[in-house]
Each structure stands twice: as structure tokens, then as C-alpha cells.
Automatic annotation (TrEMBL):
One of its GO terms (molecular function) is damaged DNA binding. The middle region has homology to RecA with ATPase motifs including the RadA KNRFG motif, while the C-terminus is homologous to Lon protease. Keywords: ATP-binding, DNA damage, DNA repair, DNA-binding, Hydrolase, Metal-binding, Nucleotide-binding, Stress response, Zinc, Zinc-finger. Gene3D superfamilies: 3.30.230.10, P-loop containing nucleotide triphosphate hydrolases (3.40.50.300). ATP binds at residues 95-102. It holds the Pfam family AAA_25. The keyword Cell division does not apply. It comes from the Bacteria. NCBIfam families: sms. SUPFAM superfamilies: P-loop containing nucleoside triphosphate hydrolases, Ribosomal protein S5 domain 2-like. This is DNA repair protein RadA. The lineage of its organism: Bacteria, Bacillati, Actinomycetota, Actinomycetes, Pseudonocardiales. The keyword Zinc applies.
């Protein structure tokens, strides 16, 4: 009797193995990625020593000049990248359709060519070369060292690289490209993995910076196999609301710099420009104090940003009062509301509560808790807070106001923009001159202290 060969089922995205086929991977939660594979595991064998490709050298003898980052000419993007593009780096820029990815990369290609650091090759698989040229004319990004190619075949891209010999390669997008050596439709798991691996090998072999455009799924994550994010060196998330001109480039992964930096841009009809001082975009300058508003200072990477939190509290006509959140973490807001009712004496059980940030900013760090609580308390009592007050602190379940990192750096930004008073946790550390800090240990004390801040 011939023994039947064992088979396994493996996820095409994360490689997780299961005993039988399932529709959803238990590890990465991706749908339709489980594939049957025969038992092809080779027997364990001893590996013979081989000749190294290059002798090992002391780390002090390794030349680092060839790995220095080169500026792209777009300062806000360079901030997120950690100084610029390192030779051989592969960057994945992901974002929703229409958010402005192609417009940003046309600006990068133009600035790269204008600086004389080499030609920039822009390969598009979604549009024709004429369509890209029209956009470049509209935004003023036309240069003699910019080259366009409308291709969707990986081998053709490699041929263009051999002909042009660019200093920068942009591929828009990786989901539209295909490799002739691999079966499957463009955008499929197998094709995306093969194309990305081929472009990564090209970048490393020639020291060529490569920027890949990636699509996103409905939940905002990068589309395609998860291995795509592991293959590249840098993953950037391009965020923005279609109803707002503000755009944020957020670092998700960066092998050559900080992975939590953000760059701010403004998308206009004539192109995209960097916003080096974006704090004013997230504040509403009221002619007089308005109940239900509070200002805090968040930190994105190394950059402090002032953010205004707004709240509206009204009598509910529903059996289940409504809780609506925009720009904040809904779970943290629900926790803050519960603490505010239990520890601060603000009764919200029969009230509809709406909370939001200004300017489309998304804030998830705990330092915004105190400002959110004070905004809700102000809306509940219909008493406005001082427009010169900022509130910084994390709120715990026991009602305590906890310390957060970088209080001094946050308050320095508040002083620069004209704020004179601040509510901070106890023992905040060294603080800048020009602002009066009121230390509060719990939420009830904070709600009481704001009444004595002059407006």
C-alpha cells in the first residue's frame, strides 16, 4: 500500500500553516490566502562551508559615505525619511485613491532632477505617459532629466533602467506590475511578491533608490501580502481627508531613521507644498471663548503639534445615548467619559456626547485625555475655558492625571503660539519660561482648577 503524501495548508501572506483549509488565516486574519501545498520540506542535512563573497572587515574599516542619505528636495518628506533617500533604499508609499500620492512623487522626481543628482525615472502602470505629463504641466513639475514610461511589465522596467540609468526610480503602483516568470493576475499575492522582490534586488544591486506606490484596503492597511512590508526598507502612510487640503505622511517602518515621524503637506490645485509649521492648522481662532473646546499639545515623532479638541453635549432622545468620535481613539474617549462621570461628577448617562479634533488631525496618544475630559465638562456646564490654556495629561481609571513624555517640549511650543497657562500632571519636570503651569493630581482637581484660569 502506497503511503499518501502529506499536505499542508499555508497562508500566502504570512506563511502560517494549518492542518486543513480555512477561509480566513488564523494568524494575519486575511481572507482567501490559504493554499494547499505538498510536504516538500527537505530533510535536515549538514551544510558545508562555502567561500564568502567578500572577507569580513572590522566595522571601523567599513565605508559609510556610500550609505549617506541624499536629500530629495522635499523637506517634509526628508524629515520622515530620516534625512533623505539612502542609496539602494526601497520605500513603499501607501494611501487611499485620490489622496495625492502621484502628485507628491511627481514633486519628488522634479526636485531630484532639478538638484542635478541624476535623472528620475517615473514608471506608471495606471495612467498613460500623456496623462502624467498633463499633471506635471499643471503642477509645474517638468524637467529635462525627468523620464516617463507607461509600463506594467517588470522586465520592461528593468530595460528602461538600463537605458536611462536613473538616480531615482518611482513605480506607480506595485499592484499594477507583473512578472512574466510568475503566474497569476497583476495585483495578486504571487505577482506582488515577485515584483517587489525583483525591484528590491535591483535597488540593492545598483544602489538605486526605489519608491513604490501601494494601494490600501478598506481598513486603511497596505494591500497585498504582508511580506511586502517586510521586503522594503521604509513604509510610509499617506493620509488625508478628501474634504481638506491637509495631507500627512506618517512613517510606519524605517530602517534608516525614526519610524514615528510625520510630514505635513497642503494639497493645492497647482501642486503640493510642505507645511513646516502646521500647528495653526489644528486650531480654531475664536473671537471669543466657546464652551466645549480645549487645546492640548501632541507629539508626533520629534514634532510637537497643538491640537484643539471640541465636544458637544446634549439631551438624548434615545434609549441608548449616542457617542460619536472623530479624530480620537473611540475606546479612550469612552473610558474618559466613564471616569469623568464617576470621578469628576459630570453626569452623562442621559446625554449625547460628540467629540472631534479640528483640521482632520488624528490623535491616539494618551496625552489628549485631559483635554478631551475638560472639553466635555465645558460643554456640559456651558462654561468656556480660557483660550490661553492648554491641558496635557493622561487620565487613569482611578481619576488620576498621569505624567506623559516631553512636557517641557510641548509647553515650549505652546509658549511660541501665545498660550500663557497650562494644566499638567504633578512633577512634570523642567518647564519653559513664559507659561504658568498648574499641577493637578486628579481629574476632579483639573475640572475645578480651570475655573480660576483668567481668560
Amino acid at each position: 500500500m502506497v503511503k499518501k503524501a502529506a499536505s499542508t495548508y499555508r497562508c500566502a501572506e504570512c506563511g502560517f500553516e494549518v492542518a486543513k483549509w480555512v477561509g480566513r488565516c488564523p494568524e494575519c486574519q486575511a481572507w482567501g490566502t490559504i493554499e494547499q501545498r505538498g510536504d516538500t520540506r527537505p530533510p535536515i542535512a549538514r551544510v558545508a562551508a562555502g567561500a564568502p563573497s567578500a572577507p569580513a572587515r572590522p566595522i571601523s574599516d567599513v565605508d559609510i559615505e556610500t550609505s549617506r542619505a541624499r536629500q530629495t528636495g522635499v523637506s517634509e518628506l526628508d524629515r520622515v525619511l530620516g534625512g533623505g533617500l539612502v542609496p539602494g533604499v526601497v520605500v513603499l508609499l501607501a494611501g487611499e485613491p485620490g489622496v495625492g500620492k502621484s502628485t507628491l512623487l511627481l514633486e519628488v522626481a522634479y526636485q531630484w532632477a532639478a538638484m542635478g543628482t541624476g535623472a528620475a525615472l517615473y514608471v506608471t502602470g495606471e495612467e498613460s505617459a500623456g496623462q502624467v505629463r498633463l499633471r506635471a504641466e499643471r503642477t509645474g513639475n517638468v524637467h529635462g532629466d525627468m523620464y516617463l514610461a507607461a509600463e506594467s511589465d517588470l522586465s520592461s522596467i528593468l530595460g528602461h533602467v538600463d537605458d536611462v540609468k536613473p538616480g531615482l526610480l518611482i513605480v506607480d503602483s506595485v499592484q499594477t506590475m507583473s512578472s512574466p516568470q510568475v503566474e497569476g493576475a497583476p495585483g495578486g499575492v504571487t505577482q506582488v511578491r515577485a515584483v517587489a522582490a525583483g525591484l528590491v534586488a535591483l535597488a540593492k544591486e545598483r544602489g538605486l533608490p526605489v519608491v513604490l506606490v501601494g494601494h490600501v484596503t478598506k481598513d486603511g492597511s497596505v494591500a497585498g501580502p504582508r511580506v511586502l512590508e517586510h521586503l522594503v526598507d521604509v513604509v510610509l502612510q499617506f493620509e488625508g481627508d478628501r474634504h481638506s487640503t491637509l495631507r500627512l505622511v506618517r512613517g510606519v517602518k524605517n530602517r534608516f531613521g525614526a519610524a514615528d515621524e510625520i510630514g505635513c503637506f497642503e494639497l493645492r490645485d497647482d501642486g503640493i507644498i510642505g507645511v513646516p509649521d502646521p500647528s495653526g492648522l489644528f486650531l480654531n481662532r475664536h473671537t471669543e471663548a466657546v464652551p466645549g473646546t480645549a487645546v492640548t499639545v501632541t507629539v508626533e515623532g520629534k514634532r510637537p503639534l497643538l491640537c484643539e479638541v471640541q465636544a458637544l453635549v446634549g439631551r438624548s432622545h434615545l434609549n441608548q445615548p449616542r457617542r460619536a468620535v472623530s479624530g480620537l481613539d473611540s475606546a479612550r474617549v469612552s473610558m474618559v467619559l466613564a471616569v469623568l462621570e464617576k470621578r469628576g461628577g459630570v453626569l452623562l448617562g442621559d446625554k449625547d456626547v460628540y467629540t472631534a479634533t479640528v483640521g482632520g488631525m488624528k490623535v491616539t496618544e494618551p496625552a489628549v485625555d485631559l483635554a478631551a475630559a475638560l472639553a466635555v465638562a465645558s460643554a456640559f456646564s456651558d462654561e468656556a475655558l480660557s483660550p490661553r490654556l492648554v491641558a496635557i495629561g493622561e487620565v487613569g481609571l482611578a481619576g488620576e492625571v498621569r505624567r506623559v513624555t516631553g512636557v517641557g517640549r510641548r509647553l515650549a511650543e505652546a509658549v511660541r503660539l501665545g498660550f500663557t497657562h497650562a494644566l499638567v500632571p504633578t512633577d512634570p519636570g523642567p518647564l519653559p519660561d513664559g507659561i504658568k503651569a498648574l499641577e493637578v493630581g486628579d481629574l476632579a482637581s483639573a475640572v475645578h482648577a480651570v475655573k480660576y484660569v483668567p481668560s
